[in-house]
Amino acid sequence: MGNKTLTYGNVDMLVLKLLENQDMYGYQIIEQLEKQSQNVFSLSAGSLYPLLHNLEVKDYVDTYEGDNNSKTPGKKRKYYHITEKGKAYLAEKSKEWEQYSSAINSILFVEKGAAI
Amino acid sequence: MGNKTLTYGNVDMLVLKLLENQDMYGYQIIEQLEKQSQNVFSLSAGSLYPLLHNLEVKDYVDTYEGDNNSKTPGKKRKYYHITEKGKAYLAEKSKEWEQYSSAINSILFVEKGAAI
DNA sequence: TTGACAAATATCGGATTTCGATATATAATA
DNA sequence: TATTATATATCGAAATCCGATATTTGTCAA
Asked: What is the mean pLDDT of residues B23-50?
């Protein structure tokens, strides 16, 4: 990431969220994440692919190979599709994120001298 | 923390924020953080003390020993006080947090099928 | 009075997560 | 034909946090 530690523990959630919207292949996820965050995040390939394998092992996604007749260069695309189990996990993590970020904000945005 | 990875990389910011409000000793920081986050965070001592030493090495805080005539048991309290350098660092990290969390939210809360 | 407990600080190794470097494959392009 | 862009993959290193453990010291109950 641009800032290394800022998405720690949340990348899987972000990836699953993108996949909830549509099936994607790895490289596409990297580009989409960068675009959709206005260049705040730029996930590296070395982070993404192990993470995707992990999501597959945990049955949060399943995969299929892309069209052979693709006219783009490079290795064959591998598409990822979120499972029901993945959706449930995503919902859980999203909820945790809301709770967590609001707790951070409740500490950051307390005025000096305010009663707590 | 209650949830292990959710505050990764942000604990120093939270601690400095508490110290911006008033000088505190370690144990007090743990209790205050728990209280002020409505029990969302519970920082462990094994996390806090190395972190405090690191903040001291970086000149983000300086320290002094508490009163000898304290009637509470336990080791002597060591108070931490935020420096100007620490305040500048806190401001920087807070800004990053705002940017980061809003980027996360912009990905999480996009409606299915919405144009991006 | 003495033993248990609570307050307070401290350190270490282990677990988790992410990144940079590197490798490989392949089609388009110059 | 060589280079570049696309695409997937793996590995070791770095950073951060926690659980377990240890130590000190004052209070309080038995």
From this structure: 94
**Residue B101 to residue A100, Cβ atoms within 8 A:** no
The chain A residue lying nearest B8, using CA atoms, is: A8
Task: Flag if B103 and A21 touch (Cβ within 8 Å).
Answer: no
Nearest to B26 by CA among B86, B76, B84: B76
* Closest Cβ–Cβ partner in A99, A103, A108 for B17: A108
Contact A10 B99 (CB under 8 A): no
Entry pTM: 0.91
Q: If DSSP codes are grouped into helix, strand and coil, which group holds residue B9?
A: coil
Does domain A8-107 fall under CATH 1.10.10.10? My reply is: yes
Q: Return the domain boundaries, chain B.
A: 8-107
**pLDDT 10s digits, A55-82:** 999 999 999 998 756 678 888 999 999 9
pLDDT digits (tens, 9 = 90+) for B29-40: 999 999 999 999
Cα–Cα distance for residue pair B59/B44, rounded to 1 Å: 23
